[in-house]
Amino acid sequence: MAKVKSSLNALIIPITAVILGLLCGAVIMLAFGYDPIAGYTALVEGVVSQPYYIGETIRQSTPYILVGLSVAVAFKAGLFNIGAEGQMLMGWLGSVIVGLHFEGLPTWIHLPLAVIVGALFGAFWAFIPGILKATLRVNEVIVTIMLNYTALYVFNYVVQNILTDGLDKTENVAASASLQSAFLQEITQYSTLHWGILIALGFVIIIWLMLKKTTFGYEIEAVGFNENASQYAGMSVKKTIVLAMVLAGALSGLGGVMEGLGTYGNAYVLSASPGIGFDGIAVALLGGSSPIGIVFSALLFGSLKIGALNMPAVAGVPNELVDVIIALIIFFVASSYIIRWAMAKFKKGARAE
Q1: Which CA distances in Å does 31 have to 41, 323, 326?
Q2: Contact 190, 59 (CB under 8 A)
Q3: What HEC string does 291-339 produce?
Q4: CA dist list (Å): 207 to 258, 283, 295
Q5: Alpha helix (H) residue ranges in 49-83
Q6: SS3 of 260, please?
Q7: Which member of 62, 116, 222, 340 has the greatest number of CB atoms within 10 A?
Q8: How far apart are CA 205 and CA 151, in angstroms?
Q9: On the CB side of 140, how many CA atoms lie within 13 Å of its CA?
Q10: Using CA atoms, how far apart are residues 72 and 285, in angstroms rounded to an integer?
Q11: pTM of the model
């Protein structure tokens, strides 16, 4: 009974944050002369009114799930993985490098190889802040922020100078290394939905089992709660920190694989970071760092991003307003103690009556 009550309490915070974020968004629309009902109606229609929109929403949510898992694993170990964006870019780059080469390999070898290499690229990019944190106590936030910029420049340099001869975009990866699916595209009116969603959901199950059912998962949470107590209990804190960051990097790298082998099928010069890694932080926060919660959180963020594209044409509301709503949702999640305080006061008042 206590467990059910705890689960319900854990759900109240994100649901309340979403409702408050949407309500504040409606107030902002009204303040600027827009119709919030028309705006939100257009947003919902831009998500579920056609199979194409549904496919695009699921596709948009796919990398969010993996990057959200990445941030959550780091959170569990007491680490703040701001570098998910850079790790995602490195995973994207690694998968495309393999996807463009090794032609002639059968799909059952080429595709897994490209996926694994993408994950390894992301893992390596996270190993750098992980080892610095474990051995020299260097703040992982500072290192990962700097590595995000480094990853962007490395990504663009490799695309223009190694994978192409000065071009802004590579060729498409070989069909044997592609996650794109004619079947999924056809049933969703030729959206960009691809098989990557199955990989993302598979890792949701894997990470849940790891955190709940394995010694390593227990050690990650123990180190996150108290490093000194974990050390006293005989755990290798340094090893756990490094492995947690490497795992987080691999998951972010897989988020990049979804873009490189699925959504785009290539790599192209980026004028700025796509922002998936940063959105993944918000996804993990809203999902309470729970693998299952992250799936629903990712779907919400994917819906907001895709549905927002329908708002200017139908309701005349600028789609940038969705970014404001997302920021408000995260604000309320981060201010969850206020929601808990208000709930406690409400319950206390109800008992007094």
Answers
A1: 18, 17, 18
A2: no
A3: HHHHHHHHHHHHHHHHHHCCHHHHHCCCCHHHHHHHHHHHHHHHCHHHH
A4: 18, 16, 12
A5: 51-76
A6: helix
A7: 62
A8: 29
A9: 28
A10: 8
A11: 0.91
The alpha carbon torsion through 22, 23, 28, 31 (nearest 10 deg) reads 150
Q: For each of the domains in the chain, give its residue range(s) and CATH number, in order of start.
A: 64-307 (1.10.3470)
Instruction: Report the 10 Å Cβ neighbour count for 163.
Output: 19
Query: 267 and 104 in contact (C-beta within 8 Å)?
Result: no
Q: What DSSP string describes 166-196? A: S-SBPPPPPGGG--B-HHHHHHTTS---BTH
Which amino acid is located at 200 in the chain? A
CA atoms of 10 and 12, how far apart (whole Å): 6
Distances (CA, A) of 56 to 49, 62, 75, 91, 261: 12, 10, 29, 22, 16
